[in-house]
């Protein structure tokens, strides 16, 4: 299920809408440029919204084509890393958009948040006995941590 919300001031100023999605009763804002219909959230849900460390996964034709590893606050991506075929895009997010900022400390915090999110999801899969997914996300956590070296 997807919804499209246009915030009046935001829409008038930027001429854009924020895409919202719901997965398993948990609402979240979809990162800019993603198709809301094929996005799933792996993480906690508080008051009906994705919240805390976790992973957004965008699917196309049944295959994951991009990830957001990081922290969502009340359904909004806050800080983290988008991982796609084009590479990594890291930083803070506002209304689903990556905020342009090349400050090294912001990038370090984004990769740290992303690594912790991937590790948290690995732990969730490990607790359910899904060793393959746990191993996959542990590898992602390691790769994200290595970006900070």
Give descriptors for this structure.
Lipoprotein, disordered N terminus, six-stranded antiparallel sheet, signal, alpha+beta, 3 helices
Could you explain how this protein is built, in words?
- By secondary structure, the protein is of the alpha+beta class.
- The chain has one domain (2-143).
- 32% of the residues lie in helices and 43% in strands.
- The chain contains three helices and nine strands, in the order E-H-E-E-E-E-E-E-E-E-H-H.
- The chain has helices at residues 8-14, 104-127, 131-146; strands spanning 2-5, 18-23, 26-29, 39-46, 49-60, 63-73, 76-84, 87-94, 97-98.
- The strands form two sheets. A six-stranded antiparallel sheet has the order 4-5-6-7-8-9.
- Helix 2 packs antiparallel against helix 3.
- The radius of gyration is 15 Å and the shape is globular.
- The N and C termini lie far apart (40 Å).
- Keywords: Signal.
- Residues 1-23 form the signal peptide.
What's the topology here?
Blueprint lengths: L1 E4 L2 H7 L3 E6 L2 E4 L9 E8 L2 E12 L2 E11 L2 E9 L2 E8 L2 E2 L5 H24 L3 H16 L3
Keywords: Signal
Protein name: Lipoprotein
Organism: Uliginosibacterium paludis
Tell me the structural class.
alpha+beta
* Element-level helix/strand string: EHEEEEEEEEHH
Instruction: Give the mean pLDDT.
Output: 85
Strand order of the largest sheet: 4-5-6-7-8-9
Helicity, in percent? Answer: 25-40%
Largest sheet: 6 strands, antiparallel
Q: What is the tally of beta strands?
A: 9
Our measurement of the CA-to-CA distance between the termini, rounded to an integer number of angstroms, reads 40 Å
């Amino acid at each position: 299920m997807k919804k499209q919300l246009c915030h009046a001031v935001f829409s008038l100023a930027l001429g854009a809408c924020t895409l919202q999605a719901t997965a398993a009763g948990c609402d979240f804002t979809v990162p800019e440029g993603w198709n809301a219909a094929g996005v799933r959230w792996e993480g906690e849900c508080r008051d009906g919204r994705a919240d805390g460390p976790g992973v957004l996964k965008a699917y196309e034709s049944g295959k994951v084509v991009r990830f957001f590893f990081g922290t969502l606050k009340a359904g909004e991506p806050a800080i983290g890393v988008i991982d796609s075929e084009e590479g990594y895009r890291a930083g803070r997010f506002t209304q689903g958009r990556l905020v342009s900022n090349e400050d090294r400390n912001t990038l370090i915090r984004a990769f740290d948040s992303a690594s912790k999110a991937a590790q948290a999801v690995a732990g969730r899969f490990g607790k359910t006995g899904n060793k393959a997914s746990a191993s996959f996300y542990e590898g992602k956590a390691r790769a994200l941590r290595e970006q900070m070296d």
